[in-house]
Write a structure and sequence with these properties.
Blueprint: H1 2-20, H2 28-39, H3 42-55, H4 70-84, H5 88-126, H6 129-168, H7 171-196, H8 202-213, H9 219-255
Length: 256
């Protein structure tokens, strides 16, 4: 009960932050680390968070589209990884299904919030600021409730069920889950490249792949090379823009 309440409280606070603050605390890496800190296993929290950050990196809400709820998926997956003691590999397979399931509840909550939006518009037109403030708190309550009704039952009722299910799963299936968990980051990068759809960035993707696969570079090594290339690319791009501006100024001076 205490674990479920603590995790649910953190989930609600992070959900509010994700919709209003945008300081990044609701991102998978930070959220999983916070859950690890609350449950006393920061190492597992960071491990799960790093991988889920890669998986969900290309997922974002664009316009009226509601993406899978990466926060709830991250929190439940991290909690199961720590409490069940089975490690992050098993938990990673839960993140996507939970996030997609939470997406439906997220859409339902946003639909309810349209009532408060129209009420707030009417209150603003009437100059009723007290009612306008209540509308804001009403939308906040809906957001908290839709997070709590998913996270609390999953943590409180689901941990024992998950432990029993894991004990019943054959070793071959567990190995398959570990392998699938390992390829999920590639799926995240694939979704990111699909969203970006910038053709001239594709070579950089293959450069990183070649360094990691054939060059034996670690993630830190690939990151250092990527940052260096980005700085060089940015330097020459700015230099080209400055040269173009100088040439235009010279042509304008000569024409005068």
């Amino acid at each position: 009960m205490i674990t479920a309440l603590l995790v649910s409280l953190v989930a609600c606070v992070l959900a509010v932050e994700g919709m209003n603050g945008q300081f990044g605390f609701s991102r998978p890496l930070i959220a999983a680390t916070i859950i690890g800190l609350v449950l006393g296993d920061v190492t597992t929290g960071v491990t799960v968070g790093v991988t889920l950050q890669l998986i969900f990196m290309g997922i974002s809400g664009v316009g009226a589209a509601v993406p899978p709820n990466q926060l709830i998926g991250t929190i439940i997956a991290t909690t199961f990884a720590i409490v069940s003691g089975e490690g992050p590999e098993i938990a990673l397979t839960l993140a996507i299904p939970v996030a997609v399931a939470a997406q439906a509840v997220d859409i339902f909550g946003r639909t309810i919030n349209t009532f408060f939006i129209h009420a707030a518009d009417k209150a603003a037109a009437e100059g009723n600021y007290k009612k306008l403030e209540l509308c804001h708190f009403g939308g906040l309550l809906v957001m908290i409730c839709k997070t709590f009704i998913i996270v609390f039952p999953a943590v409180y009722f689901g941990i024992d069920a998950v432990q029993g299910l894991i004990a019943m799963i054959p070793a071959q299936v567990l190995r398959g889950l570990e392998v699938s968990g390992g390829i999920l980051p590639a799926v995240g990068f694939g979704m990111l490249l699909t969203m970006l759809d910038i053709k001239h960035l594709i070579p950089f993707f293959f450069i990183g792949f070649a360094l990691a696969t054939f060059g034996g570079f670690s993630i830190v090594g690939v990151t250092m090379v990527a940052v260096s290339i980005a700085l060089i690319y940015d330097h020459f791009q700015k230099k080209s823009e400055n040269d173009t501006e100088s040439k235009d100024d010279l042509d304008a001076l000569m024409s005068e």
